[in-house]
Design goal:
This is 3-hydroxyisobutyrate dehydrogenase. By secondary structure, the chain is an alpha/beta fold. The strands form two sheets. The protein has a six-stranded parallel β-sheet, with helices on both faces. A three-stranded mixed β-sheet has the order 7-8-9. It has 13 helices and nine strands.
Length: 325
């Protein structure tokens, strides 16, 4: 199905979904209808008001109702249970209105456990209602709003080819990766996030050590970025306020990718390691750090790199003894 076909649906107008759906509506032909489904009434009405400037938008009362008028359906949901219910609920789910041979294309943009995604994909295959791919996204709310997300896709290659014109409405062409079989997109995203979270913790430990020794944090940051310790976080997200003006530390860790979300994707990555029998040394360590972060007033509800505060705050909940200036 080409990107100009009629019958598009989008479920989940949350922080990420709102921008993605708005980009899709803006890039579809003006005469094509975008059908949306969202539990939050204020959110869906706000979306319809904004998106209707680009063409027709209809609000569906359930996934089942949306499936009745949509051939290409994208889902952006927070948890595996929500994804399973949206697809498999016998009364209100997508598959309840997707008869055998309807050849629908289901694109799940959610970040959930690989095993949960595979189970939903199997339910779709069993229904013979169409095809399912996992296509988790990366880049945060600004990229969702700007249509410049990165996407990692799992499924059969012909299904990826069919989905690509739609994915290019929300992501940069050069940052849309076909990762392989079903679940491969999620696996790639979780592995990447895991590495980023571990490297950030190491960066925080190093910066805290340097400050305690008496090093100038800006000079230490320059040394790291000119040496083998350099990583994406050291280049862009130094945890010490004042070192990098655009890092989350400069905003006191407000906004961005929340601690709770980083905790969840880290747990997913460690679960994936266990599921495939991959040895890990740091998996349980980083899980423990994020478990503590969920209980810390310095990190709860904050941007995920606020875990640096566990190293430098002494309140009985942290990991260290020095104070933030």
């Amino acid at each position: 199905m080409s990107a100009t076909a009629s019958g598009y649906g989008f479920i989940g107008l949350g922080n990420m979904g709102f921008g993605m759906a708005l980009n899709i509506r803006g890039k579809l032909p003006k005469e094509t209808t975008l059908n949306v489904c969202e539990l939050d009434e204020h959110r869906r009405m706000e979306f319809k008001e904004q998106a209707s400037a680009y063409g027709p938008v209809e609000v569906s009362n359930s996934p089942k109702e949306l499936a009745g008028v949509s051939n290409v359906i994208l889902t952006s949901l927070p948890f595996a249970n929500a994804v399973a219910d949206v697809f498999e609920n016998p009364s209100t789910g997508l598959l309840a209105a997707s008869p055998k041979g309807s050849n629908k294309l289901f694109i799940d943009l959610s970040t959930i456990e690989v095993s949960a995604s595979l189970a939903v994909g199997e339910a779709v295959a069993k229904s013979e209602a169409g095809v399912f791919i996992d296509a988790p996204v990366s880049g945060g709310i600004p990229a969702a709003d700007n249509g410049t997300l990165s996407l990692m896709v799992g499924g059969r290659e012909e299904e990826f080819d069919r989905a690509l014109p739609i994915l290019e409405m929300i992501g940069r062409k050069e940052s849309i990766f076909y990762c392989g079989k079903a679940g491969a997109g999620l696996a790639a995203k979780q592995i990447n996030n895991y590495i980023a979270n571990v490297s950030f913790l190491a960066l925080g430990e190093g910066m805290n050590t340097g400050i305690r020794f008496g090093l100038d944090p800006k000079i230490l940051a320059e040394v790291i970025n000119a040496g083998s310790g350099m990583c994406w976080n050291s280049l862009h997200m130094n945890p010490v306020k004042g070192v990098q003006p655009n890092s989350s530390a400069s905003r006191d860790f407000e906004g961005g990718f929340k601690t709770e979300l980083a905790h969840d994707v880290t747990c997913m990555a460690v679960q994936l390691m266990d599921d495939v029998g991959a040895k890990h040394v740091l998996g349980n360590v980083i899980k423990d750090v994020y478990d503590r972060a969920l209980e810390s007033p310095h990190c709860k509800g904050k941007e995920c790199r606020s875990i640096y505060r566990l190293l430098v705050e002494d309140d009985g909940k942290g990991l260290g003894t020095t104070k933030i200036e």
